[in-house]
Design goal:
Low-confidence stretches: none
Order of helices and strands: HHHH
Structural class: mainly alpha
Mean pLDDT: 91
Largest sheet: none
Shape: elongated
Strand content: under 5%
Oligomer: single chain
Number of domains: 1
Keywords: Membrane, Transmembrane, Transmembrane helix
Number of helices: 4
Number of strands: 0
């Protein structure tokens, strides 16, 4: 799980930059068209949660405590929830929310493994 946390952390940081710029463009398009959608704003929050989750993932990859995995689960879970619930016509946000959901699931698996070891 240590290697996965490092790889997922690096990829999440890179993806968060992509999501940030996509969300800014979608938010601008939503504002100009006055369609009332909030996919761009939700994407900004998803990018913040992805960036935070990526940093936490890199920092806690060697930790034997379960608190880092709880934090990862919460950060990526919030990103997935916001992405899936507020995507609207910004369909790429569903892909990024799926990435957050995968990372949340792996954080839960890592949490369960550490709990079985007694940490």
């Amino acid at each position: 799980m240590k290697i996965w946390k490092l790889v997922a952390g690096i990829l999440s940081i890179i993806f968060s930059v992509i999501v940030f710029f996509q969300s800014m463009l979608v938010g601008t398009a939503n504002t100009l068209s006055s369609n009332g959608e909030v996919g761009g704003s939700a994407g900004l929050f998803v990018s913040i949660f992805m960036l935070s989750g990526g940093i936490v993932s890199i920092v806690v990859r060697n930790s034997e405590k379960t608190t880092g995995n709880i934090a990862l689960g919460i950060l990526f879970g919030l990103g997935a929830f916001l992405g899936f619930s507020m995507a609207g016509s910004y369909s790429d946000l569903n892909i990024w929310a799926g990435w957050c959901l995968i990372n949340m699931g792996l954080a839960i698996v890592s949490f369960v493994k550490l709990r079985k070891r007694g940490y």
